[in-house]
């Protein structure tokens, strides 16, 4: 009996052993890193290409350069044999779920494993923004210490005590952030989700409306996925409703914030400082933003650790194994969870 065919899109950094084990029960086909979208779409329909035999696809964020977005065109081109797409990441905004759901193709992500490393990054950025650490660092690099005076002339920062943190998106990452922030002495934690959580998941946070979160928060912590409803959720109008001198921190997705509106607010002082790991059109970051001393940022490093990358890559393999052995992925994305056809899926072996 032939092995199930797994098409691997993107590089494996640390989970080679897991993939070697998988190759004992599956035929693993890595794609050529020079492949273009046009070539990929052609090979999906070419009976001479091994890609046309694929049953499970695994993908990484960087593999988008080979395939482009996983959109309706790509969904239509995929071989009839494809039953699942296993994505390596918590966010999956490069994938449009609807056309794949219509074709009864499951999509999985890697939700919980990113929580701790992303939360660590978030806290680093939050404290740095609150205390103006980047501002001082830049002045020191420019040789302004001691000539600039105390802290090389950086504006005096603020302590966490007495401040209200508003969490936009109290999911797994949001809760991990709260756990890390509690010892710093913040006055109160409030949150807004589309729906209120059960009390055991609120973790001591108070549920408020979006408008209340904007108006009450000294620090706004952004932890929501990017979709049509959340794109530019933090825009000029939303920022106008925030406290003067608010601090904004985003380790979710860049396009949740209207970047030009944020830059304008940073320049005016409406937003006192911002800590960002993600950007609207990354890897392109506006020079106008980079030049601002009240901006502290890193180049999408939220999960950039050996341990987290390895765990994520290994979990993708577990999702693949689950499809092979049970017919179902372990972590189907929320948009497809209620689809009845998933329950009818059959093992591949």
From TrEMBL:
Q: Which InterPro entries match?
A: D-isomer_2-hydroxyacid_DH, D-isomer_2_OHA_DH_cat_dom, D-isomer_DH_CS, D-isomer_DH_CS1, D-isomer_DH_NAD-bd, NAD(P)-bd_dom_sf
Superkingdom classification of source: Eukaryota
Of the GO CC terms on this record, one is:
cytosol
* UniProt keyword annotations, A-Z: Oxidoreductase
* The UniProt record lists the keyword Oxidoreductase: yes
- Domain D-isomer specific 2-hydroxyacid dehydrogenase NAD-binding, first and last residues per copy: 124-302
Identify the stretch annotated as signal peptide in this record.
none
- Pfam families attached here? 2-Hacid_dh, 2-Hacid_dh_C
Positions of the D-isomer specific 2-hydroxyacid dehydrogenase catalytic domain: 65-332
Instruction: Please list the GO terms describing molecular function.
Output: glyoxylate reductase (NADPH) activity; hydroxypyruvate reductase [NAD(P)H] activity; NAD binding
The UniProt entry's sequence similarity note says:
Belongs to the D-isomer specific 2-hydroxyacid dehydrogenase family.
Designated name of the protein: KLLA0C02167p
Native source organism of the sequence = Kluyveromyces lactis (strain ATCC 8585 / CBS 2359 / DSM 70799 / NBRC 1267 / NRRL Y-1140 / WM37) (Yeast)
